[in-house]
Write a structure and sequence with these properties.
Layout (H helix, E strand, L loop, with lengths): L1 E11 L6 E11 L40 E2 L4 E2 L8 E7 L2 E9 L9 E6 L6 E8 L8 E8 L2 E9 L3 E7 L5 E10 L9 E9 L1
Antiparallel strand pairs: 1-2, 3-13, 4-7, 5-6, 6-13, 7-12, 8-11, 8-13, 9-10, 9-12
C-alpha cells in the first residue's frame, strides 16, 4: 500500500506581505513485515507444506487357506511299509463303491488291524460309512474305531448286510488311526471283509 503525505512549505514573498504555500507530495512505501527465520528455509514455500503419509501401508500376509477335503486313500501313511488295508472298489450291501479301504480282520478278539495317517492338525472331522463286504462268508460282527493321537474318538459296529454312518471329531489331531476288529466269529470260520467306505477328513 502507498501512503502519500503532503508537505507544505510556507514562503513569504518579500515586500508584498503575501504568503505563498507550496505543497509537495512525499511517497512512503508500505513495506511487508519481515519474519525472522526459525531454523528452516523460509524462502521456499514448499518447505512449510506437511509431508504426505504413504497411503499403501503393507498389511500382514494373509493366512493360508484352510485345507480342503482329503480322502484317506490319498492321505500320507505314517508307516512306510505295505498298507494293512486294500484300497479300491468293493461291494457292500449289494452296492458297489469305488473308494473303499478294506481288510480281513481275522478271528474274534485278536488284535485289531489298524493304519495311521498324518493329518497335521488341519482337519476337524472324519467321515465315512462302515460295513462288511458282500464276499464275507460268516455272520461275524466287526468293530470300527477312529483314534486321534491315541485317543478313541468314535466307534461303530456293523454286520453283513449293514451300512452304518460313521463320523468322528478329530479337531486338533496330529495323527489319526483307523481300526477294524472282529467281535464275533466263533471258531474263526469264513472270511471277513471290514470296509471303510469313502473315508475322508474335512476342515
Amino acid at each position: 500500500m502507498d501512503w502519500r503525505i503532503a508537505l507544505a512549505t510556507v514562503t513569504m514573498i518579500a515586500g508584498s506581505g503575501a504568503l505563498v504555500v507550496v505543497t509537495q507530495d512525499a511517497l512512503i512505501e508500505d513495506q511487508p513485515p519481515t519474519t525472522a527465520a526459525t531454523g528452516g528455509d523460509t524462502g521456499n514455500p514448499s518447505s512449510a507444506a506437511p509431508r504426505s503419509t504413504p497411503s499403501g501401508t503393507p498389511s500382514a500376509s494373509a493366512p493360508p487357506p484352510p485345507a480342503g477335503e482329503l480322502s484317506l486313500l490319498d492321505a500320507k501313511r505314517v508307516d512306510d511299509d505295505e498298507s494293512r488295508f486294500t484300497a479300491g472298489p468293493l461291494t457292500v450291501d449289494t452296492r458297489s463303491y469305488e473308494q473303499v479301504l478294506y481288510n480281513h480282520p481275522g478271528c474274534a478278539y485278536l488284535e485289531p488291524i489298524s493304519e495311521t495317517y498324518q493329518v497335521d492338525r488341519k482337519y476337524g472331522t472324519f467321515d465315512a460309512e462302515v460295513g462288511l463286504g458282500d464276499d464275507t462268508t460268516t455272520e461275524a460282527r466287526v468293530r470300527f474305531t477312529v483314534l486321534a493321537d491315541g485317543v478313541v474318538r468314535h466307534t461303530e459296529t456293523a454286520a453283513l448286510g449293514q451300512i452304518v454312518p460313521f463320523e468322528a471329531d478329530i479337531t486338533g489331531a496330529f495323527r489319526i488311526e483307523i481300526r477294524t476288529q472282529v467281535m464275533e466269529n466263533p471258531n474263526c470260520k469264513g472270511t471277513v471283509y471290514g470296509a471303510w467306505i469313502d473315508p475322508v477328513v474335512t476342515p
